[in-house]
Structure formats: C-alpha cells, structure tokens
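note to self: the first set is below, dont mix up w the second
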Amino acid sequence: MSSLLIKIDEVISVNISSTKTLAIVVTGIVQGVGFRWATIQIANQLAISGWVKNEPDGSVKIIAQGDDDQLTRFIGP
C-alpha cells in the first residue's frame, strides 16, 4: 500500500468575495493512476476553479480557487 503525502506550499488570500487560492503539491504515486482526472471531478463537484498538472519530478501541482468551505472540503479534514 502506498502512502500519499500532500504538501500545501502556500495559501494566497484574495479579498474579492472571500475567494482564496491554494497552491498544492502532491507527492507519492500520483502520476499514471488517474489522480488528475479524479481531482478535476472533485473540483467540479465543489465548484472550485483552477488547474492540475503533472510535474517533471513525479509530483502533481494543483491550483485551486474557491471560498473557505469549498477549499476545506476539497483538501479534506
């Protein structure tokens, strides 16, 4: 069983209608397993905007934008 490490590099607060942006780097076995597709599906369900991409070092980078509740639900407890 592989472990999944999630590292949030920074949180940038934007004062427009309480919207925040998260820059997230996910490491572990996250490329070639449908991780980006699943991330997009969850983000769409939560009405989160942003993008997700594979990085050359094997990690996945996510930029997610939404309100506090949306982002908390997106990254989990």
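second set (the one i keep forgetting abt)
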Amino acid sequence: EVGWQERAPRSLSGDYLETNLVEGPGGGKSTATPLPATTSVSDLFISVKTTVHYHQARLPVILKTWFQLASQQTWFFTDSEDEEFQKRTNGHMINTNCSSSHNRKALCCKMSVELDAFLDSDKKWFCHFDDDNYVNVERLVQVLGDYNHQEDWYLGKPSIRTPLEILNREPKPHTKPHITFWFATGGAGFCLSRALALKMMPIASGGRFMGIGEKIRLPDDVTMGYIIEHLLKKPLTVIDQFHSHLEPMKFISYVQGTLKQSEGRREYVE
C-alpha cells in the first residue's frame, strides 16, 4: 500500500535535485530564488506537539532553555488540561482535545489544530517541532530571513531516499494508480510561509486536515507533504540543517546551531 524506504541520506536523490532544484542561499537547494526579508523572532509561530504523558519528562527542559528566547511565540499543543504547565508557560498550553495516543488519527488531529492556530494568528512563519526537540531560535530566525513569507515556502528535510509512493485514492476516473511526493520529516521540524499556509486554507483548515489524513491513511507529517506537494503542487525546499533522530549521530557534524535532544534520541538543526 505504501512504498516506504529506509532512512534517507543527507540529501535527496541526485536525479531529483538536478532536475527540480536550483542553488539557494548558502549553497543549499531551493525551488526558486529566495528573496531576503527582514525577519525577527516576533514573526514566528512555533508549535510544539506534546502529550500529557510527556509533560513532566520533556517540557521542563524546554522551558529552562530555548523557550526563554521565544516564550511569546511558542505554543504547546497537548491532549489534556494541565494547570501546572499552563502557569509555567504563561498560558501557552493548548488542549487540542485530541487523543493522547500516538496513532495516525491523533497525530493528524493535533497538526490540524496547530495549523488552524497559526492561521488565526498574524505571524509570518509556522514552524512545527516535537517535544523532544531543542531549537536554536537565533539560527532559525536567520534561516527564515533568507526566504520571503509572501512567497510559497515549505522548508524541511525528508528522511527517505526517494519520493514516497502511495495508492491513488482520488475518486475515479484517474490515470495514475499511484501518487509520489516528498514530505518533510516532522521529527526534524519544518516551517511553512504564511503565503503557503493561506493557500492551504480551503483544503486543510477547519479540521479538513484530519479528513485528508484519514483518506490517505498516513500520519501528520506525510499528510502535510501530500497536501503541499501533491494537491497544491508546491515543492519541498530542502534545508539540510534540519536533523532528525533518523540520522545516525556519527554522520552529523555539529556546527553552532540547533541541538535537539531528548530521552534516547538527539536531533540537530545547524
């Protein structure tokens, strides 16, 4: 049903890069010439997906470290009321009323609420992270400063060697039995420009994101890629400095940047 690949290398396949991507800022790959824009931390909407099961184990580390650099811009999306952490985050805990399970439906439910919360804000960038991520806020702002929020940007990093191939579940008649697309791994973090998020509104806002996830029967980060790459035809721009737990530590050279770490796994954004 789904053509999963093993863990990805540090870049996409050579053929895809040569055919579809051009040089971006700092020698990275992008699908258009990024237009530098003045970006500050106040332009960001940072969502952190968590669950009541990990509040005590993971949130204190975040609150003592990078949260202090973006406390007004960071929101925690969870599945239960928690008076203690509501106070410690100064009211930045959002109970999604989604299940506390880690299944596809629960994950898509939370991502749907995250996306709607961003759309209801006036922020220029939506950046999603998990509760075991450490975010270098300063470096994140610098990276986003190389891109224009008024253009369509889907910034992240895949963790598969080739585009994901799934069954085409669109109503017939359709010509292709399968669909292929890239998606940014949620565990590495990803960012969307406001322009792109606004284009997603008719398709994915108001809970429709969950419906799409159910239709393709895949989790939240894959559903995000399906919507953006397949439905909207907007390509993923690879930011190689995003690192996830799927990359062996020995292959990651730490450059002053974002170290994401948690119980049993560590992730970097350089």
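remember for set 2: The two ends are 35 Å apart (CA to CA).
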